[in-house]
Amino acid sequence: MSRNLLLISTSTTHGTGYLEHAEQQVKTLLEGKKSILFIPYARPGGTSHKDYTAKAREAFEKWGISVSGVHEYDDPVKAVKEAEAVFIGGGNTFVLLRQLYQNKLVEPLRERVQKGMPYMGTSAGTNVAGRTIGTTNDMPIVHVKTFDALQLVPFNINPHFQDPDPNSTHMGETRDTRIAEFHNHNRQPVIGLREGSMLRVQGDRMTLMGPHSARVFLQSEKPMEFKPSDDLNFLLEVYEA
């Protein structure tokens, strides 16, 4: 599989503009490309597809990359099949996945990525790159026929992963607790991506990038911390079947 992925936890970190914290990684992913297809389906309301695409366009044009929105095409499947690269932005993962299925884009996206088309996602766009959306933090505000996602990688991702605050009086579930509950019913690994972190996947190799470690959850095992210098390639194979 000729995967060429950049899976980012969030589009904006504290004190930075849209995608600024991932600028170098984005430029590397898109080296030699002149355009990218933006899929703005994740916004549940308040921001139109046109406005969301304009926001992405402003960021990429500074780097010499032109942006078109998939909603601007009469045939979104054809747009995906002809795209040089694809970027799926953040928002609500349930809204995003429903729109991907309704517009029949799941299989075309999977096929293009398997053949090497660069794919980048932030937040919900990163969440749908995994095996399922079962570890999203989002509220299920719409019904989806399946949780099965693009399956560009054989594990699940929890973007915006947060560690418990030892000084907090909050008595609700932590992210660790919720992912442990997920593993009572699902076997695939889960990667907790902290803000500012991202995964770079090239074929059968994966690198953690950014300033933070990632928390890796395997079924029936204690969570493990992996630094950017650590080997994460086993996660691309462990539950591939």
TrEMBL record:
Highest taxon of the lineage: Bacteria
EC number: 3.4.13.21
Keywords: Dipeptidase, Hydrolase, Protease, Serine protease
Metal-binding among keywords: no
Identification of the protein by name: Dipeptidase PepE
InterPro entries: Class_I_gatase-like, Peptidase_S51
Enzyme class at the top of the EC tree: hydrolase
Gene coding for it: pepE
Family: Belongs to the peptidase S51 family.
A Gene Ontology molecular function term of the record: dipeptidase activity
